[in-house]
Amino acid sequence: MRTDLAVIGAGPAGLAGALAAHARGVRVTLVDAAPAPGGQFHRQPASGLRAARPQALHHQWRTWTRLHAALAASTVRLLTDHHVWCVERVSDGRADGFVVHALLGPEQERSVELHATALLLATGGYETVLPFPGWTLPGVVTAGGAQAMLKAGLVVPGRTAVVAGTGPLLLPVATALAAAGVSVAAVVESTGPRRLARYGGALAGKLPEAAGYAVRLLRHRVPCLARHTVLRAHGDDRVTGVTVAALDAQGRVRPRTERFLPCHTLAVSHGMLPHTDLATTLGCRLDGTAVAVDDQQRTDVPGVWAAGEATGTGGASLALAEGHLAGRSVAARLHGTPYTPAPAAVAARARLRRAADALHRACTPPAHWTDQVTDGTVVCRCEEVTAGEVREALGLGAGDLRSVKLLTRAGMGWCQGRICGPAVAGLTGCRLTPPRRPFAQPVPLGVLAAQHRHEPRAEPTPPPAEEGPS
Amino acid sequence: MNPLELARARPGPAFTVEFDGRRVPALPGRTVAAVLWEAGVTSWRSTRRGGRPRGVFCGIGVCFDCLVTVNDRPGQRACLVPARPGDVIRTQEGTGHAD
After folding, report:
1. Are A129 and B56 in contact (CB under 8 A)?
2. Residues of A in contact with B79 (CB under 8 A)
3. Fold entry, domain A2-126+273-341
4. Confidence at residue A146, expressed as pLDDT on a 0 to 100 scale
5. In chain A, which residues have their Cβ closer than 8 Å to the Cβ of B1?
6. Going by C-beta distance under 8 Å and a sequence separation of 6 or more, which residues neighbour residue A394?
7. Nearest to A134, CA basis, from A252, A238, A225
8. How confident is the model at residue A204 (pLDDT cuts 50, 70, 90)?
9. Subunit contact A144:B43, Cβ cutoff 8 A
10. pLDDT tens, residue by residue, B1-36
11. Complete domains list, chain B, with CATH
12. Which residues lie within the region annotated Disordered (chain A) (predicted)?
């Protein structure tokens, strides 16, 4: 398969980028791992569930219907159920290009190739959850995970939930769970209103949205505990409740404020991290934990653009603006025409980046969260490495995440450190540096073996005919 | 109110899958994780070192906590794999490979 532009990720950024480039005459292929486009934000109920009113679980529904209709009316080729595990830069002598490798469907046993002249990485992000005693119990899920299961599977994890952590995801998740019939015992947010108010200017645009959630939470009688944190999740084989406590202005737990909240589910989130695997494999420069881009959303690798959460988490509206500008830039580059940015998108991007920046500064986990992480708390969920083992590695002289990993196996498991990375960084004081992973996800060995192409060889020389007795 | 009512879902007829020897109803389109959640099951893996129970954590295929054995194939992410009629789902012990 060949295409002008391969867009990886069919969330808001990828959809906007694909449509903007397509509208300017670019042949576009849009690739996504999910069975349908939308990404996490516009994740739709599984088609087999035949939901007549999916918008009941969604925000910005009109944006989705507009994107979906534009995609359907376009000739953008959509490849769903394609799990991209690697992108290579190739040169065929005339022009540079890229080969996108993707595993097919839920089976993931067969890999296909897509050849593209340009690449837009709209790979999105995933949640950060910092550890606390009991966080590995079944029933403790990420806030986004609870939302994803609800949106796609129309299913909830239990009758009673606590939604906790920090950041802009907590309110929509609590609201959605409550609307779906879950009794939400509390929203536990570690940031206080005074801290949010400090960033009021940049966040003014977000106020109507926040007010809307507040009203709905009131209607469902969901109490909001600001400047509180979850100390531990209780239970034997599944979570049965959590202990929460108030925080002081320095982010320390205030003594004698602990209280127990019974629940079947704890949905927890401490922020988001960008998916940067494909970008780092291609050699794109990162800015902190996100892919670095210029004002046209170009990475420093020629032919590679990036947009949305991959370039820094900031929400769906920001992703749309970034994706749109990336699509215009790609079209200009491929046609050799001048880049003409859309003024509205440029303005929206600037405004929404300021708001995202303010939210990141305001919604930080409690400053002293590591105080609550007992030595026995599992930090690396895959390899079952405890906080005590990680601290011991620090005592042995480990000065970066890689050394900690080599000494303890934290980050060496299935998820490749995606989940425990921020926790290990926080516990050891090491900088969180996204590791370079050659593959973005597990690949069957047979698929890798099949990638090895043999040079065509001349017919082997037949062995000399046996000479008969003379 | 439940999520199916909220989204006014009119799913096709339920089918049956097997989970650890018992029959569990499944709605078309749902993942293995969604089917098990609906049945009140929250864990379907025991860890390699501690033998501790695990289920869904990230829900989007990133964390690999929800690994499960489906039709004798271990290491499937329950949050991604759709349930199919007649699937035999088993709690995954460790890696799921006898050693």
Report:
1. no
2. 145, 148-149
3. FAD/NAD(P)-binding domain (3.50.50)
4. 97
5. 179-181
6. A404, A427, A428, A429
7. A238
8. confident
9. no
10. 899 999 999 999 999 999 999 999 999 999 999 999
11. 15-93 (3.10.20.440)
12. 448-470
